[in-house]
Write a structure and sequence with these properties.
Helices cover 43% and strands 12% of the residues. With 385 residues, it is of the alpha/beta class. The strands form three sheets. The chain has a five-stranded parallel sheet. α1 (3-28) crosses α2 (44-53), α1 crosses α5 and α9 packs parallel to α13 (321-333). The radius of gyration is 23 Å and the shape is globular.
């Protein structure tokens, strides 16, 4: 089939999908839709638009910060996302929001044929490079700092509501029972409670990405060994516990256990409130630690440099192994350094989360409000603006 025929078929398919989603929502008798994202790169955008066409409002509970650099880096080596040639010029003239300059090159958020399709059926947004930039009734951000990030990116302030996040209630309960839970954690492992507890979030494997340019290490195995070699020598003066990423297999990270760094099988959100220092790599979980006043080392070994946590007083950012080792030694060996970082971050903690055990109640109130105020015309921005 020709490109034009494929485009026509695609338009028909998308229209049918939107109609099906709308019918499903109406059949369910939904009053409001709650989503974790409104992402133009996946089916959540179709569900969001179908909800609006069904006369329903939707609320977003974001799980990540809408940083356009993340998508730009991912597609950096994909020629379908280059704004080149006549089509690239045409999109630049008619719908410049689809273009984002990254590393000196103009990138398209979607391939050109998909852009035409999305514009035709009404799925496009005015700022497609921004995750969650659509027609949500409210974006329930997890903290004042993240609300600031959204506003800087151009989201309407009236669309944002600081609720906290589902995980904040788990953090609250674990933090409330910290002493007892910490003893339950350390005793079976034979670890002494008179030492700082360092929780390490092992980064997931990003070496499957289309582009690994700039990464500090040449392979995931080499990266894991670099982390192990930096952490293992500290076991004599700190309790070090590691937790794997949900998509990582245990077999991939056994090098930690072999080096004397135990692997925890509990969820990160139940362990994090028990630690004194958190080590991670450009993870959304860093916000959890900051909201609890726990110092953090953000070892950006992939060198994505998102800058999501700039300004956090209790956070140290490094992007090479030597700096990582130095930061660990400085915090654990310098008298009072860990306590100092903890005091600094505790003073900022309310800016990074709402850890009061009342997130669920606030969410119920927001959803009920959205259901009461639902209206077919209640769009902050037309889908094809």
């Amino acid at each position: 089939m020709t490109a034009f025929t494929l485009l026509v078929v695609g338009i028909g398919t998308e229209r049918a999908r939107l109609a099906r989603h709308k019918s499903e929502l109406l059949t369910l008798g939904a009053d409001c839709v709650v989503m974790f994202e409104d992402n133009i790169g996946n089916n959540s955008r179709q569900v969001a638009l179908a909800a609006k066409r069904a006369g329903l409002d939707y609320v977003i509970l974001p799980t990540t910060i809408p940083n356009p650099i993340e998508a730009a880096h991912y597609y950096a080596c994909d020629p379908r996302h280059l704004a080149s040639g006549f089509v690239g010029w045409l999109i630049r003239q008619l719908r410049p929001g689809w273009i984002f300059n990254y590393q000196g090159h103009d990138r398209l958020r979607l391939p050109a044929t998909d852009i035409i399709l999305y514009e035709t059926v009404g799925l496009a947004t005015r700022k497609p490079w921004l995750l969650n930039y659509g027609q949500a009734y409210k974006i329930a951000v997890d903290s004042p700092r993240i609300a600031e990030c959204y506003e800087v990116l151009g989201f309407p302030p009236e669309q944002l509501e600081t609720l906290g996040s589902p995980v904040d209630d788990v953090l609250f309960e674990a933090n409330r029972d910290r002493a007892a839970l910490r003893e339950e954690l350390l005793t079976p492992l034979g670890l002494r409670d008179d030492r700082p507890l360092v929780l390490v979030a092992i980064p997931p494997n990003q070496f499957t990405s289309p582009s690994i340019e700039g990464f500090e290490y040449d392979s995931y195995e080499e990266m894991l060994q670099g982390w192990v070699d930096a952490l293992a020598p500290l076991a004599a003066r700190a309790n070090i516990l590691a937790v794997k990423h949900p998509r990582t297999k245990v077999e991939e990270v056994r090098s930690f256990a072999r080096a004397g760094v135990p692997l925890a099988d509990a969820a990160t959100e139940t362990l994090l409130p028990l630690c004194d220092l958190y080590v991670a790599s450009i993870s959304a979980t860093i916000r959890w630690a900051l909201a609890l006043g726990i110092p953090v080392i953000n070892y950006d070994c992939y060198r994505y440099r998102y800058g999501d946590y700039v300004g956090a007083s209790g956070l140290i950012e490094v992007e090479d192994r030597a700096s990582f080792e130095h930061a660990l030694q400085d915090i654990l060996d310098s008298a009072g350094r860990l306590d100092e970082l903890g005091r600094l971050q505790t003073s900022q903690a309310p800016e990074w989360g709402v850890v009061d055990g009342r997130f669920a109640a606030r969410l119920r109130e927001l959803v009920n409000r959205a259901a009461r105020e639902k209206s077919p015309a209640s769009t902050l921005e037309p889908a094809n603006a």
